[in-house]
Amino acid sequence: MNSFGRIFRVHIFGESHGESVGMVIDGCPAGLALSAEDLLPDLERRKGGKQKGTTPRQEADYPFFKSGLFNGKTTGAPITILFENNNTRSGDYEKQRSFPRPGHADWVAHQKYGGNEDFRGGGHFSARLTTGLVAAGAIAKKLMSAVNIQAAVTEIGGETDLEKGLQKAIDAKDSVGGIVTCTVDGLPVGLGEPFFDSVESQIAHIAFAIPAVKGIEFGSGFAAATMYGSQHNDAIIDNTGKTATNHAGGIVGGITNGNQLVYRLAIKPTASTPKEQFSLNWETGQQENFSIKGRHDLCVALRAPVIVEAATAVALIDLMLLHQQIKPVVG
Amino acid sequence: MNSFGRIFRVHIFGESHGESVGMVIDGCPAGLALSAEDLLPDLERRKGGKQKGTTPRQEADYPFFKSGLFNGKTTGAPITILFENNNTRSGDYEKQRSFPRPGHADWVAHQKYGGNEDFRGGGHFSARLTTGLVAAGAIAKKLMSAVNIQAAVTEIGGETDLEKGLQKAIDAKDSVGGIVTCTVDGLPVGLGEPFFDSVESQIAHIAFAIPAVKGIEFGSGFAAATMYGSQHNDAIIDNTGKTATNHAGGIVGGITNGNQLVYRLAIKPTASTPKEQFSLNWETGQQENFSIKGRHDLCVALRAPVIVEAATAVALIDLMLLHQQIKPVVG
Amino acid sequence: MNSFGRIFRVHIFGESHGESVGMVIDGCPAGLALSAEDLLPDLERRKGGKQKGTTPRQEADYPFFKSGLFNGKTTGAPITILFENNNTRSGDYEKQRSFPRPGHADWVAHQKYGGNEDFRGGGHFSARLTTGLVAAGAIAKKLMSAVNIQAAVTEIGGETDLEKGLQKAIDAKDSVGGIVTCTVDGLPVGLGEPFFDSVESQIAHIAFAIPAVKGIEFGSGFAAATMYGSQHNDAIIDNTGKTATNHAGGIVGGITNGNQLVYRLAIKPTASTPKEQFSLNWETGQQENFSIKGRHDLCVALRAPVIVEAATAVALIDLMLLHQQIKPVVG
Amino acid sequence: MNSFGRIFRVHIFGESHGESVGMVIDGCPAGLALSAEDLLPDLERRKGGKQKGTTPRQEADYPFFKSGLFNGKTTGAPITILFENNNTRSGDYEKQRSFPRPGHADWVAHQKYGGNEDFRGGGHFSARLTTGLVAAGAIAKKLMSAVNIQAAVTEIGGETDLEKGLQKAIDAKDSVGGIVTCTVDGLPVGLGEPFFDSVESQIAHIAFAIPAVKGIEFGSGFAAATMYGSQHNDAIIDNTGKTATNHAGGIVGGITNGNQLVYRLAIKPTASTPKEQFSLNWETGQQENFSIKGRHDLCVALRAPVIVEAATAVALIDLMLLHQQIKPVVG
Lengths: 331, 331, 331, 331
What we know:
Strand content of chain A: 15-25%
CATH topology of chain A: Chorismate synthase, AroC fold
Helix content of chain A: 10-25%
Oligomer: homotetramer
């Protein structure tokens, strides 16, 4: 389903080259001062075309509120936001229709929806759908003023010197993957549930909703698999739960422990590489060389941080509401 | 919540040293031939005490069916299974009560539940709760006879020679982490949804419900972050969707593509290391040295594979039912 | 939450005098031929101003598809439909702001949302929100071509001669209540679950989402409370499950039995009566006489049938999908 | 699904003549003092055999806690309660197997579950399943000490003199229906949501999970359909929301308004009438006379009040938790 959350429930909809993309939030507390201006900074960060390595396609990405606001505040009723699609060049994609693009959802979508899918620009599978998620995240962040969520690209193409990683891709005329690291400060102790609704489960669930994410690790993550228990265990040093180290990434037994929440995401290289590829032409049934036209990001990881923050905020606000850390009427 | 799944819904309950642990499955199709014997092999695999590096605590782990079976078949009504707890030594834990064990949920549970938690042996947070999950997984596997789920430990303490990794831990008198790799063959194309209910989202959600899991990666996973697009993209080679490589791990756009589903889990070292530790004594409010008594696994990753298979099976059976790949009445 | 359904999930949003009202459907099968024309007949039925006793307010009620359609068919992605609000006279309502209207949600909304609610014309509580539900119902009906859902007003003001009942209200210069009866033919045997997800539970749940509904009864309903078992029991007369009578209204043990599903709804009189009323002025804190201005229905039951059909269709399509009576790709 | 609730989630399971019946509650706050003794009074009320018109079958109905309690308090982990079945006479039912009993689920269960259902004594459809619901209700009631829920039989066989109504049935050697009225005092203003999660929707949903319920009405209910608006509207008389009348039954716009919540349920006559019936013999495919053996209630409405209270309590506690009227750790 295209929704996430138990109390603060986010629904996203739309297609890359259809009428619009957007979202509905159900369960947002009443009384939060909110306007398009609150969303624009994060929406701006999500947009490409500003930095080296991102697509020159620039949607206006202006959030039109269609419901849920009154006198500049949330009403407690569902909030609907629409983004119009107005800078699309579908023609680019029509020509490629005979090649289900490797690394893209073209082929699986065709099978799953019996050929009824909107294939233009990835349709409903497009990363453009994250516009709605970013808007939801901005609202969630504003509700949690004491919580500070920060995501950043920490590696590109295996390089921590990001400029260098990007240059490698430019030189190779290829797209490239990267790592995004997210930290959260200011969380209360006790969010999450043992087992199925652990904080890791919730965050991983929504993180894998972000296109191109192929891995997630909390705290020491995969490195923990190489450690001894005496190294990995975080000694508790006082009655606030502060630990001497933070290999657990702020979550123990699925529950926040009051230390910084830290996780890292593996972002695969943009599937739409400028390089010529060899793959199936489903009209001829043969493998052929082809290349992808259109405007694309060289490294999607570059645009991911604000989406990662949004996903994290959406997961956490729901846990905050479940644990009664935020009231149904705020402000 | 202690439940997972939309149609095939699994609830787990119990405490390590309470009356019992167990589970209820709602939504299991009617007509599946089922008995305790079907569950025993996987339950046996989950048990410790058989192999080097696992705890000598051996519960009988016999599954008592309390509802949902009639004449040796599932009825379509909820299936309840209870496991009795009968080999517990709570005394071991009482003595340690003043130290919230590092790497365990003792401290967060105390905060979250206001001191009402059953703290004996980790209580509800104990890995003993996975007994119910393993039983549910065995049922899910039996429902999907054409699907083959296999998990195995592929690294211990950073060593792919497992014997060597374990010996390092024994020599160090410490616990150690590991990697579990899970593969699934025989899945249909088209399971999963774009975004929030991607197959990765569903599997990651339940995988992080397994105690000690701190990371997950699909296909090339974190290595993808270092790759070029032309390397990572899996060329489709025929109209069945078969790909030349499988860096995506069988999932594209959140949807199964008919290739082998592959993922890896990072398992942290057992929190209960035999080594002496320095941590908070919450009675004195001071940091002190202490050591953990009781019977524990040197490497929990060793017992994880069958749990990982179960979690995978539970996630997949739900998607199979949602996509009408399995009928409400089987057999 | 403003959503209903487990697989075919309908979300409604909007306010009477805000930007728009609308809905999102998640989980609609792909491949259904669909256009605004398919929705217009039911939307037309919902509109007032055509028949004696309904409000002269006439919105255009044209459904703008914002997502989920491509080449005239559903894609399997969420369907978003917006209705613009363009014939509103908020001024009428501003004047009445000091009186929380009896029988309306004004007072509870004010308490629940801390004064942040959009109060104009009932805001989010307005029956105008049912526009989205009617659109969802029209889609659900089209998916279930073999199922025939019919609702009609069968009583007004206690009179089965509807003209007479309405005339009573006109003569009394008052609003009046009524009864709507809904029948469903062509349902398969076996929909619904014992207990919490009985067909009665599902239909009653959504029926009480319709404004002004205050009672529901299936089959003989309240009359059953006065009957003997030998009278009420429906004798099964053949192996298709056909019964000699249908006191059960087509549902036994919460499950459809293949006979006609029948239920009746009690619709209270329109709260906005033309009559002067005596109630609280919350600015003065005193009870005062006041009268309600604006355009209103004399008998809301008159506009209810198409909404009742829609609610029924939405509840049933979800059960049909759960029971695999409809495929994920249709047509 | 056999579960209800979003935060306080109740799952019921079991069969009339199987191993056991029982329930799991997920989401119960920690810290509530609780023991079997707290449940016994309501369980005792549910049992038959004490009053004229109820079945002489008397299960011990002792609640065995299998999880979720520690040191006499709830822990915050799932609470599992089992009731053993030990006073069953399956033989009675085997003989009737060839007649799917009219008014019972025998025939629909057979169709739905492909003949795999446990048919003995109604199996999973038996009213014995309400034992778990009554236990859940007793816990919910204890959590809401300021809320007073009272249900009572107010009509039998159309008579408000209950003794007279019951005598009619005894004289007619037939079973008979009745009305149960439920009132709730002490609720806060603001529970419930507009539309799909109205308080009426929630209560009706769970009320129709009670076997034999065929109708529900809130406040004036069906009588409202015969009233004028000026009669039905409840004038608000002060700033606490108190109304001069209570035709709305304490719910306006789907939201509690602080006045007494009142609703009535229509209970059909016990399907198992002592009278000889004429119905299908599915072995011969012919209609034949047959009579039902076994111990049954003459009027199931007599045992319903405690179940109705439980259902109401379960619906309301969930809304109370959603609206943060009860904390995650109590006591």
